[in-house]
Amino acid sequence: DTKAIATPKRTREILEKYGFSFKKSLGQNFLIDVNTLSNIVEHAGVTAESGAIEIGPGIGALTEQLARKADQVLAFEIDQRLLPILDDTLSDYDNVRIVHQDILKANVSEVIQDYFHEGQPVHVVANLPYYITTPIIMNLLMARLPIESITVMIQKEVAERIAAAPNNKSYGSLSIAIQYYTEAKVVMDVPKTVFMPQPNVGSSVLRLTMREQPPVQVENEPFFFDLVRASFGQRRKTIMNNLSRHFKDRFDKDSIRQSLDEAEIDEKRRGESLSMEEFATLANVFYRKL
Ligand code: SAM
């Protein structure tokens, strides 16, 4: 694979040819290792029938590997300076379309409808700009897109928080928010040496597989997520303490104690020990009393 974009030599040549300088503010850390890229594409489950959506193609390192495996590739890039470069580096592939847009402002749903075939399995695959990891993932989930999975390189610490289980130190409201919509798994840790320039933080690849149904039944989703956030409000405090503070204008201590009792949750437990199922039961008990 001597002609791949993602080698240190070829990447340097491309950067030099166009006089490109990295913008730290756009999270520009490009991948320079084909092996890492093949692993990402493999974990994403991209096949010859797939549509692939990439966020931030850079100079096309991942885009190229996706173009080789997928039916169609659609990539959103915010940095105008990269457009002529991508035109050049991806000129061999006629199944790639670059959209010059901020992913946080794009109507991804509409673009999927316009560009991919009806019923085509679509996968999001990206080496994300780290400064907006969480908003990008939350936006994709809230848009309820017709996609199968999201496989992304992100900060190691954020990947661990997203995929964490109860009683793990990384478990929190972000774990619940994302696991409500997806099955989350950290599929590999990646060394800094596969990036140019090397990022200051560790990196991991996270795979999110979309669920057809949420794993728990919740009467009111905003209320559920609000209660979850409140339960983790002050990590060292008990669930009783955090909920009393949060609901002080709506419920007195006795009624909070009673609701915890009804949900069969010991008031001395901490938020980090509750499963999503327990949070759902608790939120439903409170919600019915509003
Ligand atoms: N995919 C390339 C690779 O792996 O070598 C580049 C990945 S780099 C970590 C992140 C890319 O996202 C950069 O190309 C950057 O310009 C782009 N980007 C940053 N913010 C963006 C945004 N809001 N919308 C779309 N692209 C963005």
Succession of helices and strands: HEHEHEHEHEHEHHEEEHHHH
Low-confidence stretches: none
Average pLDDT across residues?
97
How far is the first residue's CA from the last residue's CA? 62 Å
Q: Could you give the order of strands across the largest sheet?
A: 4-3-2-5-6-9-7
Shape: elongated
Radius of gyration: 22 Å
Helical segment tally? 12
| Main beta sheet strand tally, sense and closure | 7 strands, mixed
Determine the fraction of residues in helical runs and give it as a percent range. Answer: 25-40%
Strand content: 15-25%
Total beta-strand segments? 9
Structural class: alpha/beta
Hetero compounds? S-adenosylmethionine
Keywords: Cytoplasm, Methyltransferase, RNA-binding, rRNA processing, S-adenosyl-L-methionine, Transferase
Binding site for S-adenosyl-L-methionine: 29, 31, 56, 77, 102, 127
Main location: cytoplasm
GO molecular function, one term: 16S rRNA (adenine(1518)-N(6)/adenine(1519)-N(6))-dimethyltransferase activity
Question: What key attributes describe this structure?
Answer:
9 strands; 40% helix; single chain; two-stranded antiparallel ribbon; 290 residues; elongated; binds S-adenosylmethionine; 12 helices; alpha/beta
In short:
It catalyses: adenosine(1518)/adenosine(1519) in 16S rRNA + 4 S-adenosyl-L-methionine = N(6)-dimethyladenosine(1518)/N(6)-dimethyladenosine(1519) in 16S rRNA + 4 S-adenosyl-L-homocysteine + 4 H(+). This protein has twelve helices and nine strands.
What secondary-structure arrangement, pairings included, does this model have?
Blueprint: H1 8-18, E1 30-31, H2 34-44, E2 51-55, H3 61-69, E3 72-77, H4 82-89, E4 96-100, H5 108-115, E5 122-127, H6 133-142, E6 149-155, H7 156-163, H8 173-179, E7 182-190, E8 195-196, E9 203-210, H9 221-231, H10 239-246, H11 253-262, H12 276-289
Helix pairs in contact: 2-3, 9-12
Bound molecules: S-adenosylmethionine (SAM).
